[in-house]
Specification:
The chain has helices spanning 4-32, 39-48, 54-59, 99-102, 106-111, 138-153, 166-175, 194-205, 212-225, 258-267, 285-288, 290-303, 316-321; strands at 62-68, 74-80, 88-92, 115-119, 159-164, 184-188, 245-250, 272-277. With 323 residues, the chain is of the alpha/beta class. An 8-stranded mixed beta sheet has the order 1-2-4-3-5-6-7-8, sandwiched between helices.
Length: 323
């Protein structure tokens, strides 16, 4: 009987190890392979909400192009030639979305005198990539897009980046670690540290409360995708950005707490501005108050001497009042 105990113990250890590994793969899968929204669903949603101005979009010239990423795949991009200018804004969407979601900002920037580039982030839409990494690998894709757009528009044109949620976190991580070929960033509801963001969502949405759960996930993400969660941290690099930043969030955001945006602003108070909107769930500041959002963007561009009010500019709120 005694001879059987080592065998039983070995089996029990193997079963326990296999269970732990299975749990680690399951939890890390939720991070690396987060479920994405269907592009047709995004299109229909934006049309129904009257945020995607289809008639305007179809009336302006567009150019589809691909950019090769150092990560080993092509990034799918589209340039919207909305104005007679070289000034351009690159818009980076959030996790689970595609470039279709970015188009809600297109008419805004067109009114302010900018052409627009939208693109699909890694593993979203038509862009390659096996996993989602919340800015760790995505910042390299954005770097490639910025370099190509700068080549297209020349060194004298103004080039901005607007990012929403993961797109904002990507923009800040790119801006803080690369040559700054851009002239400004608008960071809408970014997380400050991805570890803290995961912890917040675990406490909010699951029975898991211990920070050791994050360390457990981190081990499997590092083993499977080659990076540590602590390396996905805009707040560690935001102070390296020398160009103006507009930080935007809404006080009703429970997905990425507004305190994270405030902390990022506190790390970069010089040459930046923080706008806290009263209304709006996560990434919905523009959806809830589009006219006020546009006013804040315009004020930022003018106050920081980035660009000026176009001669033909009319705030859309005033246009509606005269109709």
């Amino acid at each position: 009987m005694k001879k059987k105990w080592p065998v039983i113990a070995s089996i029990a250890a193997s079963v326990t190890g296999a269970s732990i590994a299975a749990l680690g793969y399951t939890l890390s899968n939720k991070v690396m392979y987060i479920k994405r929204k269907d592009q047709q669903f995004i299109f229909d949603r934006e049309i129904a909400a009257n945020r995607f101005k289809l008639e305007w979009y179809e009336s302006v010239p567009k150019e589809d192009f691909l950019v090769s990423s150092i990560n080993g795949y092509d990034v799918s991009c589209q340039m919207i030639h909305s104005v007679d200018s070289k000034n351009t804004v690159i818009i980076a969407h959030g996790v689970t979305e595609t470039h279709i979601n970015s188009l809600k900002y297109a008419a805004l920037f067109a009114r302010l005198g900018y052409n627009i580039v939208v693109y699909d982030q890694r593993r979203h839409g038509a862009t390659g990539g096996k996993t989602t990494s919340y800015g760790f690998y995505e910042k390299n894709d954005l770097k490639a897009v910025v370099e190509e757009v700068r080549r297209k528009i020349g060194d004298d044109a103004i080039l901005g980046i607007q990012g929403e949620s993961m797109g904002a976190a990507t923009a800040l991580q790119y801006g803080g670690t690369s040559e700054q070929l851009f002239d400004f960033i608008i960071a809408d509801c970014p997380f400050s540290k991805f570890e803290d963001q995961l912890q917040h969502l675990m406490v909010r949405d699951t029975p898991l409360r211990s920070p050791y759960a994050i360390k457990f996930i981190d081990y499997f993400v590092q083993m499977r995708d080659g990076y540590n969660l602590k390396d996905v941290s805009p707040i560690d690099v935001v102070q390296n950005i020398t160009k103006p930043i507009l930080f935007v969030t809404s006080l009703e955001d429970t997905y990425i707490p507004p305190k994270m945006t405030e902390n990022l602003y506190e790390k970069h108070p010089e040459n930046s501005r923080l706008v806290l909107f009263e209304k709006g769930a996560h990434a919905k500041s523009f959806n809830e108050q589009p006219y006020d959002y546009e006013k804040e963007v315009l004020k930022f561009l003018v106050d920081f001497n980035i660009s000026y009010v176009p001669n033909n500019y009319v705030n859309p709120e005033k246009m509606l009042q005269t109709q």
